[in-house]
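Researcher: For the annotation table, I need structure tokens for RidA family protein. Please keep the output clean. Sequence:
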Amino acid sequence: MSIPALPFSKTRRLGDTLYLSGELGFDADGRVTGDVQSQTRLALSRIAETLKAQGLDLSKVISCTCYLTDAADFAAFNAAYSEFFSDPLPVRTTVISGLALPEARVEITVIADLS
């Protein structure tokens, strides 16, 4: 199964800022499976790949917006999320909400500094 083409851009540049669309924890087969920690790691790995294609890495992320489907996943999500960032940590907003794919437990979008 491949990830479907959707009607939005994966990235957009504005001045010294790069905006990334929300990323789900798709595996290599285009499926979203597993617990919140595995989905978080996959989503952040995909974000890191997108940033790398732009000549950036996760240290350039200044802001994250994270969507969880279950408040009970918050601690497990934080444990996986913290593996990817170091000081200075990006600012973050975490929202508990439904997602477009019923099997998705997390979606993450970031803003990165291009300077």
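Researcher: And a one-line annotation?
Model: The chain has one domain: 16-113.
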